[in-house]
Specification:
The chain has helices at 70-80, 157-171, 182-191, and strands at residues 37-41, 54-58, 106-110, 126-130. With 201 residues, it is of the alpha+beta class. The longest helix has 15 residues, at 157-171. It is globular and about 50 Å long.
C-alpha cells in the first residue's frame, strides 16, 4: 500500500500530502492515459475469465508512487476508527462445520520451513496466527516499533478500498479514491507511465 511519503524517522512529511498521495492505488499521480488510449484486452487462449478479447479504453488516472506505510495506515485507523478484516472475528455462517472456538481474529503469517518442502501445499510455509493484523505483523506479541516506514501488511481488499477512499478525501478533496482496475494496470503495462505522464492539473 501507499500514501504520503514518510521521513527516515518514520514520521509523515505532511508537506507532500497533496503531491504524493498514496493509497494502494487510490490515486495520486496523473498517469496521462487519456480515453483515446484504446486497446484489445483479454485472451481467447488461456483462462475463461479472460475471454473474449474485447476493446477497452481508459481515462487518465492518479496513482501513488510508493507503498502505503504502517505510519500512514495508522493515521487512517486513528482518524476513522476503522477495523480491518484481520481484526474481526470470522462469521460462523461463512464456515459451516468449523468449531466456533477456532474462529478468532487473525491472519496468515509466513514461516520459513527449516528444510525443503513441496510447493503443493502452501500451509507448509504459511500458518494462521491468531491476533495477526496490520499492527501485530507476526501475531500476538509482535509490534510495529521501528517499522513505521515499512509497507503495511495483513490488509484485505475491502481494507484497501476504505483506505483509498479516506486518502482521497484527505489529499485530494475534489477527487474520488478507488483501487486501480485490471484495465488500468493493463493500459499502464502496455503504454508505460513515464512517457505518458501529463502535468498534474
Amino acid at each position: 500500500m501507499t500514501p504520503r511519503q514518510g521521513n527516515r524517522d518514520g514520521k509523515r512529511n505532511d508537506s507532500t500530502l497533496g503531491q504524493r498521495r498514496s493509497a494502494i492505488g487510490a490515486a495520486v499521480r496523473k498517469d496521462g492515459l487519456g480515453s483515446w488510449r484504446t486497446f484489445q484486452m483479454g485472451s481467447n487462449d488461456f483462462y475463461s475469465e479472460e475471454r473474449p478479447v474485447h476493446k477497452a479504453a481508459v481515462d487518465g488516472l492518479w496513482i501513488d508512487e510508493h507503498l502505503v506505510t504502517n505510519a500512514q495506515f495508522e493515521r487512517f485507523v486513528s482518524e476513522t476508527g476503522y477495523i480491518t478484516v484481520a481484526e474481526r472475528a470470522p462469521n460462523p455462517a461463512d464456515y459451516p462445520g468449523v468449531d466456533a472456538d477456532l474462529l478468532v481474529p487473525g491472519s496468515l503469517v509466513f514461516r520459513r520451513p527449516p528444510h525443503r518442502v513441496s510447493l503443493k501445499n502452501f500451509l507448509q510455509w504459511w500458518s494462521y496466527e491468531p491476533g495477526a493484523s496490520w499492527k501485530n505483523p507476526e501475531g500476538a506479541g509482535s509490534h510495529l516499533a521501528g517499522r513505521e516506514t515499512h509497507p503495511v501488511v495483513h490488509v484485505a481488499y475491502e481494507d484497501a478500498e476504505a483506505f483509498a477512499a479516506w486518502g482521497a478525501r484527505v489529499c485530494q478533496p475534489k477527487r474520488s479514491g478507488s483501487l486501480p482496475r485490471a484495465v488500468d494496470w493493463k493500459a499502464r503495462s502496455l503504454f508505460g507511465a513515464t512517457s505518458l505522464l501529463r502535468k498534474a492539473e
